[in-house]
Write a structure and sequence with these properties.
5 helices, mainly alpha, Four Helix Bundle (Hemerythrin (Met), subunit A), elongated
Amino acid sequence: MNRSRDWMEQAKSDLEHARKSITVGDYDWACFAAQQAAEKAMKALHMRRGAIAWGHSVLDLLEALEGEYDMEPALLDAARRLDRYYIAPRYPDAHPAGPPRRYYTEPEARQAVADAESVVSWCDANLSS
């Protein structure tokens, strides 16, 4: 059974969670949820192709599709930025001192959401084609 649509639905839900996190000042969680949205959207696209996608790097998942889909360099840049949010926003020992929430700002969270929107939108368009 191909569950690519389930993965895409969850990606969109994670993206909405990222947006809501910004409104309450949870910028660390907004960044992580944005990364999760992009990762799940990428996995949905891989799944649609009948492939199993392992790992958490949005960039690696995207690069694995080069040559099969048209992608702009800006999409790869968005993936690079999002990959920074897989571990660091969640773990205090990922930073020199203090809780992760100290290290994330509203502009950074907004950029993460915008990057995730780009990846999710690109995946959704290719999932439908």
